[in-house]
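Quick check before the chapter quiz. The format below is the same one you will see on the exam, so make sure you can read both the input and the output lines.
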Amino acid sequence: MRRATTLISALALLLLAGCSGGLISGGKTVPPVDVTQLPPMRVESFSIVVPETLTVSEENSYKPKADIVWRGDPYGPRYAQVKAIFEAGIRDGVKDLSGSVPVNLHIVVQRFHSQTQKVRYTFGGQYEIEYDLQVSDARSGAILIPAYRVYAIEDAPGGSDAIVADDEGRTEKADNIALIAASIRTQLTGVEWSPVPPPEG
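Here is the expected output.
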């Protein structure tokens, strides 16, 4: 076990030496390590931090200037609500990863823009999520993928499409959970993955 962990750590360091992190290519995040060259992973645990230094807006405008814009839950503790959405999304995205390397994830939310009422019931817009991701070996604590910024962006329905989606249970919350799930799955495997958002019941 110790030898395997050492080899994995060494491979990660080797890959780091030739790569830069936190880049954007074609609208997609490029990790600082080529995960397709690492042994497959399984997630043992994850931690999510939503810093209370992030700004929150309840303004019903087209594009509030804030880090957190969320209307998919009743008015309340937005930091806690965003954390719960991330927890659900990460669980969904990693639940059936069964690789040989156990890892821990550390996630720090940097931006969570959903839709205001004005946007959702007119032209729609986008869901825009940013978070920092770090991956470490669950046995040794060695950092396999150092922290880098992940960008998850997706078109969001508007007008009559949004009304139909809400009626069918494909709410803003379901969409954002699915977006986070797809994002984390892709970051850990290097393979594009698009789950179908389950209806909220």
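If your answer matched, good. The domain at 2-189 is CATH 3.40.50 (Rossmann fold).
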